[in-house]
Design goal:
Strand order of the largest sheet: 1-2-6-3-7-22
Strand content: 25-35%
Number of helices: 11
CATH architecture of the largest domain: 3-Layer(aba) Sandwich
CATH topology of the largest domain: Aminopeptidase
Helix content: 25-40%
Structural class: alpha+beta
Largest sheet: 6 strands, mixed
Shape: elongated
Number of domains: 2
Bound molecules: zinc ion
Number of strands: 23
Oligomer: single chain
């Protein structure tokens, strides 16, 4: 097949990738394996950036911007629980490949590595694959580094989609709401103002909050996920404050300032010294030793279903013999950065069902992995092959933003 030096079976590639441990922030060994595959498969240009992402570019016209980037993350969550197989063996049984990351998302990444390279002979423009770090801890931040360098016209997120075409996802914000009280000895509570009582009132109001609903993405969500006093523990002492962490799933047209203002408006008027709200911000470190300050506000995105990228994807899926179904993801992906932050047309499609992600005995259908590779091959040709040049529709899509 074209420039490819070897013909690789994406299932074998996925199995080999499963054998490389790669928790978030420790993807180094996995990255070495991906780099080897990119070189062996015949990618024209292979590089590792400062964050440790691996990128392979294929197709002619070095120097021209990439027409479409296929992204998969390398990191996995820990293999918690009692497994019936070794989570890092990558064995195939009854038509399924088992192991941590089989579905989320070494299957999709392997399908992209093999499917894109299989298009090599039919490309008139560059196409790239990225294997990114730290998706499980902070979606999109690492992909941003790749986007800064490649400026692709379109992005395909290869996360498990149950072979559905995913045209969007809700965003994710981590919000801290703090109730400020007045500390006092617990034996003389009347001398203080208890922020826990205040927070209890706030929580009952928040439960009744009316959140927006989007036709495509469904309702916005707010859920409390932890609570901590200051000091913690607070013994014989009414604490000076209490903070609740919320997971807030956002829709289009929301932003960090708006989400915080809306929350403060709901608790406005409650007694006490009042409330403050913030988006969580912390530091993450890559396996290459880079430290990044990240704010946990990952925006929502939706691709119109009549967008050329959506049309090209549905054609590729149909041509690969898979029924075309459209949907949106329930979880957050690197698409938050490409589409949500940067407005790059982005679409999702990947082997494996989202319900298989992060579970005991995680596995993926080997047939789906191979079919996904074929879908990626066809999409690469549709977007960066000769036909794409004759087709004004695609040009409009590429430059559309
Ligand atoms: Zn994932």
């Amino acid at each position: 097949m074209g420039h490819a030096k070897i013909e690789a079976d994406p299932v074998e590639v996925a199995a080999k990738l499963i054998r490389r441990p790669c928790l978030s922030g420790a993807e180094g060994e996995m990255a070495d394996a991906v780099e080897e595959f990119l070189n062996d498969l015949g990618y024209r240009e292979v590089f590792r950036d400062r964050l440790g992402n691996l990128v392979g570019i294929i197709g002619p016209n070095a120097g021209e911007s990439v027409r479409v980037l296929f992204d998969g993350h390398m990191d996995v969550v820990p293999p918690a629980g009692e497994w019936s197989v070794n989570p890092f063996d990558g064995i195939v049984r009854d038509g399924r490949l088992f192991g941590r990351g089989a579905t989320d998302m070494k299957g999709g990444l392997a399908a992209a590595l093999c499917g894109v390279v299989a298009a090599a002979n039919d490309l008139s423009h560059p196409v790239a694959v990225s294997a990114t770090v730290l998706e499980e801890t902070i979606e999109g931040v690492a992909l941003g580094e790749v986007l800064d360098r490649l400026h692709p016209d379109a992005v395909v997120i290869c996360e498990p989609s149950g072979m559905q075409v995913k045209v969007g996802q809700r965003g994710r914000a981590e919000v801290l709401l703090t109730a400020h009280g007045v500390p006092a000895h617990a034996a003389s509570p009347e001398r203080g103002r208890n922020p826990i009582t205040l927070m209890a009132q706030a929580l009952s109001r928040i439960e009744l909050m009316e959140l927006p609903i989007d036709q495509t993405l469904g309702p916005a969500i707010i859920v409390a996920t932890d609570v901590v006093s200051d000091p913690y523990p607070s013994i014989s002492l009414i604490p000076s404050s209490v903070t609740v962490r919320f997971d807030r799933r956002t829709l289009l047209d929301e932003d960090a300032q708006g989400v915080l203002a809306e929350l403060l408006a709901v608790v406005d008027g409650l007694d006490g010294r009042g409330f403050s709200a913030a988006i969580t911000a912390d530091e993450v470190e890559t396996y290459t030793g880079e430290r990044l300050q990240v704010e946990r506000y990952l925006p929502a995105w939706v691709l119109p279903i009549d967008h050329p990228l959506a049309l090209a994807m549905t054609s590729a899926v149909a041509a690969a013999g898979t029924p075309v179904e459209l949907g949106v993801w329930g979880f957050c992906t690197n698409g938050s950065e490409s589409a949500g932050v940067r407005g790059i047309p982005t679409i999702g499609f990947g082997p494996g069902s989202p319900e298989e992600a992060h579970i005991i005995d995680e596995s993926i259908s080997v047939e789906e992995v191979r079919t996904a590779a074929e879908v990626y091959r066809r999409l690469a040709i549709a977007y960066a092959g000769e036909a794409a040049d004759d087709d004004e529709r695609h040009d409009a899509g590429h430059r559309g933003g």
